[in-house]
């Protein structure tokens, strides 16, 4: 069990984790990556040709890596640092970590579901290790405290909580089963039954595209109780409270539960940013055109090009890129992997880059705000046994992973074992809860957080264990992101379909081709690294096709089978 209100995936008895196979585009990206024939080839006449890749996050680095293996010369542009929202930072007391290495904090992505099998391909490729992440009531979490309306409950499992929490869990499971065909979809996705996945999902998209998450709950007999809806919003399922998602499309939430994206999370040992950094340095053993020993780093002299400031079309339907250093280069193909709002604000763009319907889709993109704050501590003191007022041991941990309706919302305790320095994520929040922190400095945020947690744990002096300055982020205030991740609102399905299918450029006017969109906000699973990988592979297929290349017949790519599995198309009138 991974949460106070668990994902309805508990209905199934299947032992193997599900994969992100659909529901919108049921294509086996993991099989595509694992096939010995590779992702495809381009004609030798294209070898060595430069292709711009704008954005050095996971999607951009995956796309650049695979293009390099095909014999093209990717030119990566990055405004800040390689990694994007895979951002791992250290503290100013790194020596305190001792022989175990530097203490780190995950400012962006920090937990990954096993269903992210295309992502896992690259994690394995670069030799990274993962371990269970301490989510609420997860097996890796020693204990969880749920604190609502001033009343705290200590739990190691769901059975330790009051009956009302189990009632809410049952209501959520019943809601999914009765109103969203959960068991049928779960079975179809596990079995990779494409016709059945498409049949079920097409019906749900047509019925629910205009519905909010909260409206979906209200329309269910299982959630007729306001109290149950309120508890569900504050405590949620999987990773915690979901009331910040209540205004979003219910389709976004169903994608999460169907793919078990919020279950069985694992973290990357040493930090998630290692993944794009290792891919940047990796010298593939199977590579075309380039000599063995070639890496993205070596092709770039160690550093990517700086931020892009202008994009426009020039003669021959080519894309001309101007960067912050004033350098101007023209390319036959470009992959853009940054947050789509950058094309509306930070980058001077020609209208001719995209069809007007795609510009509209980008303008309508809805991003979620998100904030975190971490502090380094001398040791995992929370594992000490608590004592009562008489000094008698209680059998409980001194402090626990905490879900609350107070300002902190979610507090996570991260350690590498006893008597070693550790890290506390004092607060992880979204949307309005994130905006509450925006005007405050890191130290001001920490003071409010310590006060809130002190009300839950009056006998615990967190401050005396802190050994360095806090580190914090508000993604809505990051100039090259302007938000944490996309979350569609009701009625946005059509916009998302336009963005996701943009890599199929034979459907576009001839004078609107050559630039490809990728990144998790282009995917159906925004906020998950798997979406960044999947759309990168889509864009690679598109670039390969633009150069006259093709996949091996035994390993068709996403564009080769597109017409058979294309996302359902809703009427535009």
Describe the structure.
A hairpin with a 2-residue loop joins strand 6 and strand 7. The strands form 7 sheets. Strands 7-6-18-19-20-15-21 form a 7-stranded mixed β-sheet, sandwiched between helices. Strands 2-1-12-23 form a 4-stranded parallel β-sheet, with helices on one face. The radius of gyration is 24 Å and the shape is globular. It has 17 helices and 23 strands. Helix 2 packs parallel to helix 10 (274-281), helix 2 runs parallel beside helix 16 (529-546) and helix 5 (182-190) runs antiparallel to helix 6. The two termini are 45 Å apart. It has 573 residues and is of the alpha+beta class.
Write the layout of secondary structure elements.
Elements: H1 29-34, E1 50-54, H2 58-69, E2 73-77, E3 88-90, E4 104-106, H3 117-125, E5 130-132, E6 144-148, E7 151-155, H4 163-180, H5 182-190, H6 194-208, H7 213-218, H8 226-235, H9 250-258, E8 266-268, H10 274-281, H11 296-299, E9 308-314, E10 318-323, E11 328-331, E12 334-336, E13 348-349, H12 356-364, E14 367-368, E15 370-377, E16 385-387, E17 393-397, E18 401-404, E19 410-414, E20 422-430, H13 431-435, H14 442-456, E21 471-474, E22 485-486, H15 493-500, E23 515-517, H16 529-546, H17 562-565
Parallel strand pairs: 1-2, 1-12, 6-18, 9-13, 12-23
Antiparallel strand pairs: 3-4, 5-8, 6-7, 9-10, 10-11, 14-22, 15-20, 15-21, 16-17, 18-19, 19-20
Helix pairs in contact: 2-10, 2-16, 4-8, 5-6, 12-15
């Amino acid at each position: 069990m991974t949460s106070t209100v668990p994902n309805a995936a508990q209905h199934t008895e299947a032992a193997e984790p599900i994969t992100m196979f659909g529901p919108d585009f049921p294509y086996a990206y993991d099989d595509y990556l694992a096939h010995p024939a590779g992702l495809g080839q381009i004609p030798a006449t294209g070898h060595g040709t430069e292709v711009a890749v704008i954005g050095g996050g996971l999607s951009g680095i995956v796309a650049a890596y695979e293009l390099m293996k095909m014999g093209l010369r990717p030119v990566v542009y990055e405004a800040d640092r390689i990694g994007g929202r895979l951002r791992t930072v250290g503290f100013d007391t790194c020596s305190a970590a001792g022989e175990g290495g530097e203490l780190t904090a995950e400012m962006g992505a920090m937990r990954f579901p096993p269903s992210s099998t295309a992502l896992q391909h690259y994690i394995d490729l670069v030799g990274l290790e993962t371990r269970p992440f301490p989510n609420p009531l997860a097996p890796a979490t020693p204990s969880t405290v749920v604190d609502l309306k001033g009343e705290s409950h200590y739990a190691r499992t769901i059975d330790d909580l009051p009956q009302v929490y189990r009632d809410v869990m049952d209501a959520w499971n019943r809601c999914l089963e009765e109103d969203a065909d959960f068991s049928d979809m779960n079975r179809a996705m596990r079995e990779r039954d494409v016709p059945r996945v498409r049949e079920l999902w097409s019906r749900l998209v047509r019925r629910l595209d205009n519905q909010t998450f909260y409206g979906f709950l209200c329309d269910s007999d299982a959630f007729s109780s306001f109290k149950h809806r309120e508890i569900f919003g504050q405590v949620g399922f999987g990773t915690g409270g979901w009331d910040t998602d209540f205004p979003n499309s219910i389709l976004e939430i169903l994608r999460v539960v169907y793919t078990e994206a919020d279950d069985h999370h694992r973290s990357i040992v040493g930090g998630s940013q290692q993944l794009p950094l290792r891919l940047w340095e990796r010298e593939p053993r199977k590579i075309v055109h380039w000599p063995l020993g070639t890496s993205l780093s070596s092709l770039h002299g160690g550093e990517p090009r700086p931020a892009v400031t202008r994009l426009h079309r020039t003669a021959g339907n080519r894309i001309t890129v101007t960067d912050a250093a004033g350098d101007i280069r023209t390319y036959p193909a470009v992959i853009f992997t940054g947050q789509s709002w950058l094309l509306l604000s930070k980058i001077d763009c020609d209208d001719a880059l995209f069809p007007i319907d795609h510009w509209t889709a980008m303008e309508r993109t809805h991003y979620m705000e998100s904030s975190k704050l971490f502090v380094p501590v001398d040791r995992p003191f929370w594992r000490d046994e608590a004592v009562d007022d008489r000094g008698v041991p209680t059998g409980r941990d001194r402090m626990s992973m905490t879900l609350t309706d107070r300002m902190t919302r979610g507090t996570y305790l991260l350690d590498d074992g006893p008597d070693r320095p550790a890290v506390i994520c004092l607060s992880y929040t979204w949307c309005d809860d994130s905006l509450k922190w925006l005007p405050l400095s890191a130290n001001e945020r920490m003071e409010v957080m310590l006060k809130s947690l002190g009300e839950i744990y009056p006998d615990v002096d967190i401050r005396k264990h802190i050994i360095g300055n806090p580190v914090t982020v508000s993604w809505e205030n990051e100039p090259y992101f302007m938000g944490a991740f996309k979350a569609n609102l009701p009625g946005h399905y059509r916009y998302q379909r336009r963005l996701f299918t943009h890599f199929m450029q034979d459907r576009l006017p001839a004078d609107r081709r050559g630039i490809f969109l990728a990144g998790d906000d282009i995917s159906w699973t925004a906020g998950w690294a798997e979406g960044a990988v999947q759309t990168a592979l889509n864009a690679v297929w598109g670039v390969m096709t633009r150069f006259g290349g093709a996949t091996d017949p035994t390993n068709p790519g996403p564009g080769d089978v597109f017409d058979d599995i294309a996302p359902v198309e809703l009427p535009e009138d």
